[in-house]
């Protein structure tokens, strides 16, 4: 018999009409932004990039062979529907003239690319060494929470070069048997970290990555819901449907099938 899981909601602020991070409308807690870069104590750089849908072995990266200052990364989403599959490409690197990149340790897991970029000083410089953020990495919640007249808008993903760019986009597919498949981006969250909770009105989901990477300040929490009126035929109760879900590469997929369908 499955044990009841108690959710600690004290960390999830209730902000009517607001979103926690403009990079993802379903994120309610934790580090914001499509990309995060920080300088570690050993002077290496930690780079975190959200690439939901890209398999763990599907990312590529290389260092600029000429200047040794930029890391190029790219990856493709694996979908049977090639039309809506996203392709990503972007850069991260050094903004100083005194250092060069000596190595990149890259790991892709659950739709998040994490890189440790090591560097070495090759000449003296009067100014402090810096790193740069590529353009449009996302304001990600940096709006004035005290001004209730300002509403934040969810931003486009800056590294999507093909496919849907909106980070609040979710993919919906209606099949011939009447079932509906809906996908949500929950980067960093695996299937073991997600709860899907249907009731008579909606299908709610909650995701929290239990494994926090050593250079991330905290976990990330995602919450959302699907309206039953959108999913069901008129007069057919939501709870009479077959509801199945799975999560892979940082994307939650929920399938709702009518009671008379042969869902597999």
Automatic annotation (TrEMBL):
SUPFAM superfamilies: HSP20-like chaperones. InterPro entries: HSP14.7/HSP23.5/HSP23.6-like (IPR044656), HSP20-like_chaperone (IPR008978). Signal peptide: none annotated. It comes from the Eukaryota. PANTHER family: 23.5 KDA HEAT SHOCK PROTEIN, MITOCHONDRIAL, SHSP DOMAIN-CONTAINING PROTEIN. This is SHSP domain-containing protein. It comes from Brassica carinata.
């Amino acid at each position: 018999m499955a044990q009841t899981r108690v959710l600690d909601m004290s960390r999830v602020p209730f902000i009517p009409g607001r979103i926690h991070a403009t990079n993802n409308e379903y994120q309610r807690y934790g580090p914001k932004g499509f990309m995060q870069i920080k300088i570690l104590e050993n002077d290496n750089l930690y780079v975190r990039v959200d690439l939901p849908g890209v398999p763990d072995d599907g990312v590529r990266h290389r260092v600029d062979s000429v200047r040794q200052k930029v890391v190029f990364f790219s990856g493709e989403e694996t979908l049977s529907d090639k039309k809506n599959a996203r392709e990503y490409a972007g850069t991260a690197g050094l903004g100083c003239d005194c250092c060069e990149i000596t190595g990149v340790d890259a790991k892709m897991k659950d739709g998040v690319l994490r890189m440790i970029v090591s560097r070495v000083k090759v000449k003296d410089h009067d100014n402090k060494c810096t790193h740069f953020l590529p353009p449009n990495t996302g304001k990600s919640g940096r709006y004035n929470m005290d001004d209730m007249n300002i509403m934040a808008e969810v931003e486009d993903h800056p590294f999507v070069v093909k496919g849907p760019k909106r980070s609040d986009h979710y993919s919906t597919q209606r099949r011939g048997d009447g079932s509906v498949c809906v996908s949500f981006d929950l980067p960093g969250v695996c299937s073991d970290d997600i709860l899907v909770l249907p009731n008579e009105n909606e299908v709610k989901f909650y995701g929290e990555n239990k494994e926090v990477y050593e250079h991330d300040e905290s976990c990330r929490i995602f919450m959302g819901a699907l309206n039953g009126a959108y999913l069901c035929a008129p007069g057919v109760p939501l709870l009479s449907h077959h509801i199945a879900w799975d999560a892979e590469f940082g994307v939650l997929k929920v399938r709702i099938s009518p009671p008379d369908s042969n869902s597999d």
